Amino acid sequence: MNLGQWIGLIAIVLSLYILWQIREVLLLMFAAVVLATTLNRLAKRFQRFGMRRGFAVLLAVAIFLAGVAGFFWLIVPPFAQQFQELTYQVPKGFGRFNTWLDALRTRIPNQLVPYIPDINSLIQQAQPFVNRVLGNSFAFVSGSLEAILKILLVLVLTGMILADPVAYRKVFVRLFPSFYRRRVDGILDKCEVSLEGWITGAFIAMFVVALMSLIGLSILGIKAALALAILAGFLNLIPNLGPTISVIPAMAIALLDDPWKVIAVLILYFVIQQVESNFITPIVMAQQVSLLPAVTLIAQLFFVTFFGFLGLFLALPLTVVAKIWLQEVLIKDVLDEWGNNHTKETELVIVPESPRADDNWTAENPDVNRERQIDDDILQKED
Fold first, then answer.
1. Is residue 47 situated within a structural domain?
2. Which residue has the higher pLDDT, 364 or 56?
3. Where does the record place the region Disordered (predicted)?
4. How far apart are CA 339 and CA 140, in angstroms?
């Protein structure tokens, strides 16, 4: 390779290294883009009713903030009360279980007595683990503060993008060669439509799961049924793992009433998950986003490995966007055209009779005409 090729290779390697080092920042930026896209589409729907852009954006943001505040208002107080009672009832339950084991030892042969567990010894063995967990409380607090700062960063970036989405879109399009910018603008349109479809399908699935959970938990008489149902619907955003996580607090609260309710809650959540995965998601997502189940699972494993919990939470929108870019750029523009001898289309440049120097509208500079036309197209789409 010559000197120029070596310089290009080194530049690519350095760019990949820098991108890897700032991967978490890029993921937060993507989260802000997804949230801004959602609120922007909602604001556009309000604009169809005659609202001005500024008022429509403020209304969309107000609905989002009200939803977040309502979520925490419905979730935190019942959980705090129930888990405070749980910390009192669990040791009491251990005491009852230990008394039952003592009574059992008096009724069985002496040869089987050593095989019956001793609760006190188990608690002593678990004591170092508990101390270690409590000793890491500072790390937990610092991690919580870091999470809050990341959430604030995402919200600030969302507000900046939502204030003027056209400007940020034009900047992104200009990162590509002039001959490919119109194509990139079309790909961005498809990404926006697909993200809107995924968000719509996800909210429909969340609502159905929350409704089924609320009905089932209310029939079983579980406390904080509304909060548990909302949490189950929210965690449904994380396929495969979200329903598994949501059953843990439900089983813990069911333990306060009666042990048999723990098994009933587990069966209820299993049935809901089967209905959601076999009926709701295929019907809803098939109309919105077409993703193979194996691709979804592989994407989750990939993003959680490299990006942690945030990557797991954003695995589906990342997969939706990556699928569109791979399909449009790699497959259609590269692989499908591999070896095809197609002629380049000639561009028709319209030269006005009296060109204006301030607009740079000249036949000698067709790239300016093309870029200006792309910018006009972007503005028309946003309007």
1. yes
2. 56
3. 353-383
4. 56
Q: What is the DSSP letter of 334?
A: I
Rounded to whole angstroms, how far apart are CA atoms 87 and 252? 10
Mean per-residue pLDDT, 229-257: 81
Residue 109 domain-assigned (yes or no): no
C-alpha 383/C-alpha 368 separation (Å) is 22
Q: Is the CB of residue 320 less than 8 Å from the CB of residue 198?
A: yes
The 10 Å Cβ neighbour count of residue 124 is: 10
Which has more pLDDT, 314 or 137?
A: 314
Encode burial over 289-302: b for 16+ CB neighbours within 10 A, e otherwise: bebeeeebeebbee
Residue type, 380: Q
d(CA 268, CA 334): 49
* Helix or strand run (H / E) with residue 150: helix 137-163
User: Domain range spanning residue 53?
Assistant: 13-101+141-337+361-382
The predicted structure's pLDDT at residue 201 = 80
CA distance 267 to 310: 29
Residue 135 identity: G
Number of domains in the chain: 1
* Whole-angstrom distance, CA of residue 91 vs CA of residue 82: 15
Residues 132 and 136: their CA atoms lie apart, in Å, by 6
Tell me if residue 344 falls in helix, strand or coil.
coil
DSSP string computed for 299-311: HHHHHHHHHHHHH
How many CA atoms lie less than 13 Å away from 27 in the CB half-sphere? 21
Q: Which of 246, 238, 299 is nearest to 269 (CA)?
A: 246
- Cα–Cα distance, 227 to 76 (Å, whole number): 8
Task: Return d(Cα 238, Cα 306) in angstroms, integer.
Answer: 17
Per the CB < 8 A criterion, the answer to whether 213 and 233 are in contact is yes
Under 8 Å between Cβ of 75 and 97:
no
Residue 117 domain-assigned (yes or no): no
Q: What amino acid occupies position 244?
A: T
